[in-house]
Amino acid sequence: MNIQPLLEKSSRDHSHLCPRQILGVRLGLCGLKALGLPANQGSKRVLVITETDGCFADGLTAATDCTVGHRTLRVEDYGKAAATFVDTQTGLAIRVAPALDIRERAYQYATAESRHYFAQMQAYQVMPDEEMFTVSDVHLATSIAEIVSRPGVRVNCDGCGEEIMNEREIHKDGQVLCKACALTAYYELPVSMPIFEKTSV
Question: Where are the beta strands (DSSP E) in the chain?
């Protein structure tokens, strides 16, 4: 398949093309192929869980049409350029990751280029999937039904009062809590900061 239109799509918002975007496009195509589904299939049948954000994730989106806004792309930030592809109809889940020596292998496909960055730019566009990636069947620790949830379901947190969507609440000691109140939040409010309640307009 000609991947140039996908690379152009990925680079459109960046004003440049980088190795991680190319890697994301190629890995996205590999994941869809492993599920037996076409590129840019554009339905909610596929859920992609990317293990990093940034340029790599944009490459995945270009190849799969999965986005955070459509709730078909989720970010579990492990800092890894890898992703799991889930067929929500069959339950099949496939994790695709770069080969551990992918950078070294790249030189075999860009023999005239001594600079790492540009060797990867060239090689990642032409390397065979089997040279680039490892593909593994995986089982999700959380069920597809829980990950996708039911749209329109809303409750209010008994701790902070804020609305919780998509069944992300936690039931603890008889209370309905958001993750920030029930577990550890990724943010802290300054002690001196006043808390204002929202008023209806």
Answer: 46-50, 73-75, 83-87, 93-98, 133-137, 154-156, 163-165, 170-172, 175-177
pTM of the model: 0.87
With CA atoms as reference, report the closest residue to 10 among 139, 123, 121, 131.
121
Residue with tokens 């590129």: 39
Q: What is the DSSP letter of 108?
A: G
Question: How many domains is the chain built from?
Answer: 2
Q: Cα 192 to chain center, whole Å?
A: 37
**Running DSSP on this structure, what letter comes out for residue 194?**
P
Q: Can you give the CATH number for the domain in which 95 is found? A: 3.30.1330.130
d(CA 31, CA 60): 10
Residue 95 and residue 9 share a domain: yes
Assigned token pair, 10:
């990925």
Q: Which pLDDT tens digit goes with each residue over 96-109?
A: 999 999 999 999 99
